[in-house]
Protein backbone atom coordinates (compact mmCIF):
# COMPACT_ATOMS: atom_id res chain seq x y z
CA UNK A 1 0.00 0.00 0.00
CA UNK A 2 2.79 2.43 0.82
CA UNK A 3 4.34 2.00 -2.65
CA UNK A 4 1.16 3.45 -4.18
CA UNK A 5 2.01 6.75 -2.53
CA UNK A 6 4.66 7.43 -5.19
CA UNK A 7 2.36 7.69 -8.26
CA UNK A 8 -0.46 9.20 -6.19
CA UNK A 9 1.91 11.87 -4.88
CA UNK A 10 3.03 12.77 -8.41
CA UNK A 11 -0.58 13.29 -9.49
CA UNK A 12 -1.59 15.28 -6.41
CA UNK A 13 1.50 17.51 -6.55
CA UNK A 14 1.00 18.22 -10.26
CA UNK A 15 -2.60 19.31 -9.64
CA UNK A 16 -1.58 21.42 -6.64
CA UNK A 17 1.27 23.16 -8.46
CA UNK A 18 -0.87 23.87 -11.52
CA UNK A 19 -3.64 25.46 -9.48
CA UNK A 20 -1.42 26.94 -6.77
CA UNK A 21 -3.42 25.24 -4.00
CA UNK A 22 -2.22 23.25 -1.03
CA UNK A 23 -1.58 19.57 -1.66
CA UNK A 24 -2.49 18.73 1.94
CA UNK A 25 -6.15 19.24 1.07
CA UNK A 26 -5.86 16.06 -1.02
CA UNK A 27 -3.28 14.19 1.05
CA UNK A 28 -5.01 14.52 4.43
CA UNK A 29 -8.22 12.70 3.40
CA UNK A 30 -6.05 10.00 1.80
CA UNK A 31 -4.23 9.32 5.07
CA UNK A 32 -7.41 9.52 7.12
CA UNK A 33 -9.63 7.28 4.99
CA UNK A 34 -7.20 4.89 3.27
CA UNK A 35 -4.31 4.54 5.72
CA UNK A 36 -6.32 5.00 8.91
CA UNK A 37 -4.10 7.60 10.56
CA UNK A 38 -5.34 9.90 13.31
CA UNK A 39 -6.32 13.48 12.36
CA UNK A 40 -3.20 14.89 14.06
CA UNK A 41 -0.95 12.46 12.15
CA UNK A 42 -2.77 12.92 8.84
CA UNK A 43 -2.70 16.73 8.95
CA UNK A 44 0.94 16.79 10.06
CA UNK A 45 1.98 14.31 7.37
CA UNK A 46 0.04 16.23 4.73
CA UNK A 47 1.68 19.53 5.58
CA UNK A 48 5.21 18.04 5.69
CA UNK A 49 4.72 16.50 2.24
CA UNK A 50 3.32 19.82 1.05
CA UNK A 51 6.51 21.58 2.15
CA UNK A 52 8.64 19.34 -0.10
CA UNK A 53 6.24 19.62 -3.03
CA UNK A 54 5.94 23.38 -2.85
CA UNK A 55 9.69 23.80 -2.36
CA UNK A 56 10.12 21.95 -5.66
CA UNK A 57 7.39 24.03 -7.26
CA UNK A 58 8.90 27.25 -5.91
CA UNK A 59 12.25 26.49 -7.55
CA UNK A 60 10.51 25.85 -10.87
CA UNK A 61 8.48 29.09 -10.77
CA UNK A 62 11.48 31.08 -9.51
CA UNK A 63 13.54 30.00 -12.54
CA UNK A 64 10.80 31.37 -14.79
CA UNK A 65 10.53 34.59 -12.70
CA UNK A 66 6.85 33.88 -12.10
CA UNK A 67 6.64 35.06 -8.48
CA UNK A 68 5.45 38.50 -7.36
CA UNK A 69 7.69 38.80 -4.29
CA UNK A 70 6.54 42.24 -3.12
CA UNK A 71 2.89 41.22 -2.96
CA UNK A 72 3.86 37.88 -1.39
CA UNK A 73 5.77 39.60 1.40
CA UNK A 74 2.80 41.78 2.32
CA UNK A 75 0.53 38.75 2.54
CA UNK A 76 3.07 36.73 4.55
CA UNK A 77 3.30 39.43 7.22
CA UNK A 78 -0.27 38.55 8.17
CA UNK A 79 -0.28 34.87 7.18
CA UNK A 80 2.65 33.57 9.26
CA UNK A 81 1.39 34.68 12.70
CA UNK A 82 -2.12 33.51 11.78
CA UNK A 83 -0.73 30.09 10.82
CA UNK A 84 0.83 29.60 14.25
CA UNK A 85 -2.44 30.55 15.97
CA UNK A 86 -4.36 28.17 13.69
CA UNK A 87 -2.09 25.21 14.50
CA UNK A 88 -2.52 25.81 18.23
CA UNK A 89 -6.30 25.89 17.82
CA UNK A 90 -6.30 22.67 15.77
CA UNK A 91 -4.89 20.74 18.72
CA UNK A 92 -7.65 22.09 20.98
CA UNK A 93 -10.75 21.69 18.78
CA UNK A 94 -12.35 18.33 17.79
CA UNK A 95 -11.18 17.15 14.36
CA UNK A 96 -14.74 16.37 13.23
CA UNK A 97 -15.82 19.97 13.75
CA UNK A 98 -12.79 21.27 11.89
CA UNK A 99 -13.51 18.98 8.94
CA UNK A 100 -17.11 20.15 8.66
CA UNK A 101 -16.11 23.80 8.86
CA UNK A 102 -13.48 23.27 6.19
CA UNK A 103 -16.02 21.56 3.93
CA UNK A 104 -18.31 24.57 4.32
CA UNK A 105 -15.43 26.90 3.51
CA UNK A 106 -14.62 24.98 0.32
CA UNK A 107 -18.28 25.07 -0.68
CA UNK A 108 -18.46 28.86 -0.29
CA UNK A 109 -15.14 29.47 -2.03
CA UNK A 110 -15.98 27.12 -4.90
CA UNK A 111 -19.29 28.90 -5.41
CA UNK A 112 -17.55 32.28 -5.44
CA UNK A 113 -15.12 31.13 -8.13
CA UNK A 114 -17.91 29.70 -10.28
CA UNK A 115 -20.01 32.85 -10.03
CA UNK A 116 -20.61 34.81 -13.22
CA UNK A 117 -18.00 37.53 -13.61
CA UNK A 118 -19.08 41.13 -13.05
CA UNK A 119 -17.76 43.77 -15.40
CA UNK A 120 -15.50 46.06 -13.39
CA UNK A 121 -15.44 49.83 -14.04
CA UNK A 122 -11.93 51.14 -13.73
CA UNK A 123 -11.24 54.08 -11.41
CA UNK A 124 -9.96 57.21 -13.23
CA UNK A 125 -6.63 56.84 -11.41
CA UNK A 126 -6.45 53.11 -12.20
CA UNK A 127 -3.06 51.71 -13.15
CA UNK A 128 -2.17 48.13 -13.93
CA UNK A 129 0.77 46.46 -12.22
CA UNK A 130 2.90 44.49 -14.67
CA UNK A 131 5.28 41.68 -13.79
CA UNK A 132 8.01 40.77 -16.28
CA UNK A 133 8.97 37.12 -16.65
CA UNK A 134 11.09 35.09 -19.06
CA UNK A 135 8.52 34.98 -21.87
CA UNK A 136 6.92 38.41 -21.64
CA UNK A 137 4.90 40.24 -19.02
CA UNK A 138 1.74 39.59 -16.99
CA UNK A 139 -0.39 42.50 -15.78
CA UNK A 140 -2.95 42.49 -13.00
CA UNK A 141 -5.20 44.84 -11.01
CA UNK A 142 -3.27 45.87 -7.86
CA UNK A 143 -5.21 46.26 -4.58
CA UNK A 144 -5.75 49.93 -3.70
CA UNK A 145 -5.47 49.37 0.08
CA UNK A 146 -3.71 46.96 2.44
CA UNK A 147 -6.99 45.66 3.90
CA UNK A 148 -7.69 42.90 1.32
CA UNK A 149 -4.04 41.84 1.47
CA UNK A 150 -4.10 41.53 5.26
CA UNK A 151 -7.43 39.70 5.24
CA UNK A 152 -6.14 37.26 2.62
CA UNK A 153 -3.11 36.50 4.78
CA UNK A 154 -5.04 36.17 8.05
CA UNK A 155 -7.83 33.96 6.68
CA UNK A 156 -5.45 31.79 4.66
CA UNK A 157 -2.99 31.43 7.53
CA UNK A 158 -5.67 30.46 10.04
CA UNK A 159 -7.10 27.86 7.66
CA UNK A 160 -3.67 26.39 6.96
CA UNK A 161 -2.96 26.16 10.66
CA UNK A 162 -6.31 24.55 11.42
CA UNK A 163 -6.63 22.08 8.53
CA UNK A 164 -3.13 22.03 6.95
CA UNK A 165 -4.72 23.57 3.86
CA UNK A 166 -6.56 26.70 2.84
CA UNK A 167 -3.96 29.40 2.21
CA UNK A 168 -3.45 28.36 -1.41
CA UNK A 169 -7.18 28.24 -2.01
CA UNK A 170 -7.67 31.75 -0.58
CA UNK A 171 -4.72 33.01 -2.62
CA UNK A 172 -6.16 31.62 -5.84
CA UNK A 173 -9.48 33.39 -5.22
CA UNK A 174 -7.72 36.67 -4.43
CA UNK A 175 -5.23 36.51 -7.31
CA UNK A 176 -7.46 35.13 -10.07
CA UNK A 177 -10.83 36.62 -9.17
CA UNK A 178 -9.91 39.94 -7.56
CA UNK A 179 -6.54 40.85 -9.08
CA UNK A 180 -7.22 39.14 -12.45
CA UNK A 181 -3.70 37.72 -12.61
CA UNK A 182 -2.35 35.51 -15.36
CA UNK A 183 -2.72 31.91 -14.19
CA UNK A 184 1.01 31.13 -14.16
CA UNK A 185 1.89 34.28 -12.17
CA UNK A 186 -0.97 33.63 -9.74
CA UNK A 187 0.12 30.03 -9.24
CA UNK A 188 3.80 30.93 -8.80
CA UNK A 189 3.06 33.66 -6.26
CA UNK A 190 0.67 31.39 -4.39
CA UNK A 191 3.18 28.53 -4.36
CA UNK A 192 5.79 30.79 -2.73
CA UNK A 193 3.36 31.86 0.00
CA UNK A 194 2.14 28.31 0.60
CA UNK A 195 5.72 26.99 0.85
CA UNK A 196 6.64 29.40 3.66
CA UNK A 197 3.37 29.09 5.59
CA UNK A 198 3.44 25.29 5.23
CA UNK A 199 7.01 25.18 6.56
CA UNK A 200 5.91 27.24 9.57
CA UNK A 201 2.88 25.02 10.17
CA UNK A 202 4.92 21.81 9.84
CA UNK A 203 7.51 22.99 12.36
CA UNK A 204 4.88 23.92 14.95
CA UNK A 205 2.92 20.69 14.39
CA UNK A 206 6.02 18.53 14.85
CA UNK A 207 6.77 20.29 18.12
CA UNK A 208 3.24 19.70 19.38
CA UNK A 209 3.05 16.11 18.11
CA UNK A 210 6.28 15.11 19.84
CA UNK A 211 9.22 12.90 18.86
CA UNK A 212 7.34 9.58 19.17
CA UNK A 213 4.48 10.66 16.94
CA UNK A 214 6.82 12.20 14.38
CA UNK A 215 8.86 8.99 13.98
CA UNK A 216 5.78 7.01 12.88
CA UNK A 217 5.41 9.27 9.85
CA UNK A 218 8.80 8.41 8.31
CA UNK A 219 7.71 5.38 6.16
CA UNK A 220 5.01 7.46 4.48
CA UNK A 221 7.43 10.30 3.77
CA UNK A 222 9.95 7.98 2.10
CA UNK A 223 7.40 7.17 -0.64
CA UNK A 224 5.52 10.45 -0.88
CA UNK A 225 8.37 12.98 -0.95
CA UNK A 226 9.97 11.76 -4.24
CA UNK A 227 6.53 11.89 -5.86
CA UNK A 228 5.82 15.48 -4.86
CA UNK A 229 9.30 16.57 -5.96
CA UNK A 230 8.51 15.26 -9.45
CA UNK A 231 4.98 16.65 -9.45
CA UNK A 232 6.22 20.05 -8.36
CA UNK A 233 8.23 20.38 -11.57
CA UNK A 234 5.45 19.02 -13.80
CA UNK A 235 2.85 21.39 -12.35
CA UNK A 236 4.77 24.51 -13.35
CA UNK A 237 5.01 23.28 -16.95
CA UNK A 238 1.28 22.65 -17.08
CA UNK A 239 0.45 26.05 -15.53
CA UNK A 240 2.45 27.92 -18.21
CA UNK A 241 0.28 26.37 -20.92
CA UNK A 242 -3.00 27.55 -19.42
CA UNK A 243 -3.77 30.92 -21.00
CA UNK A 244 -7.44 31.31 -19.99
CA UNK A 245 -7.72 32.58 -16.37
CA UNK A 246 -11.53 32.22 -16.45
CA UNK A 247 -11.22 28.54 -17.36
CA UNK A 248 -8.73 28.07 -14.52
CA UNK A 249 -11.04 29.79 -12.02
CA UNK A 250 -13.94 27.56 -13.06
CA UNK A 251 -11.81 24.41 -12.85
CA UNK A 252 -10.53 25.28 -9.38
CA UNK A 253 -14.05 26.20 -8.26
CA UNK A 254 -15.42 22.86 -9.46
CA UNK A 255 -12.58 21.04 -7.68
CA UNK A 256 -13.45 22.81 -4.43
CA UNK A 257 -17.11 21.74 -4.72
CA UNK A 258 -16.06 18.11 -5.19
CA UNK A 259 -13.70 18.28 -2.21
CA UNK A 260 -16.42 19.90 -0.11
CA UNK A 261 -18.84 17.06 -0.88
CA UNK A 262 -16.24 14.38 -0.10
CA UNK A 263 -15.36 16.05 3.18
CA UNK A 264 -19.00 16.28 4.25
CA UNK A 265 -19.60 12.62 3.40
CA UNK A 266 -16.47 10.91 4.65
CA UNK A 267 -14.61 13.13 7.14
Topology:
Layout: H1 5-19, H2 24-33, H3 39-63, H4 69-90, H5 95-114, E1 129-133, E2 136-140, H6 147-163, H7 167-178, H8 183-215, H9 218-240, H10 245-266
Antiparallel strand pairs: 1-2
* C-alpha geometry: globular
Helix and strand string, N-terminal first?
HHHHHEEHHHHH
Measured by DSSP, the beta-strand proportion falls in under 5%
Q: What is the SS-derived class? A: mainly alpha
Count of individual beta strands: 2
pLDDT averaged residue by residue? 81
Q: Give the proportion of residues in helices.
A: over 70%
Question: Number of domains in the coordinates?
Answer: 1
Strand count, sense and closure of the main sheet? 2 strands, antiparallel
> Can you list the strand order of the major beta sheet?
1-2
Provide a count of the helices. 10
Radius of gyration: 18 Å
Ranges with pLDDT <50 over ≥5 residues? 118-127, 132-136
In whole angstroms, the N-to-C terminal distance is 21 Å
Overview of this protein structure:
The chain is mainly alpha-helical. The protein has one domain. Helix content is 75%, strand content 4%. It is built from ten helices and two strands, in the order H-H-H-H-H-E-E-H-H-H-H-H. A two-stranded antiparallel sheet has the order 1-2. Strand 1 and strand 2 form a beta hairpin. The chain is globular and about 45 Å long. About 6% of the residues have low confidence.
Summed up:
This protein is mostly helical and 267 residues long.
Jot down its keywords:
globular; 10 helices; 267 residues; mainly alpha
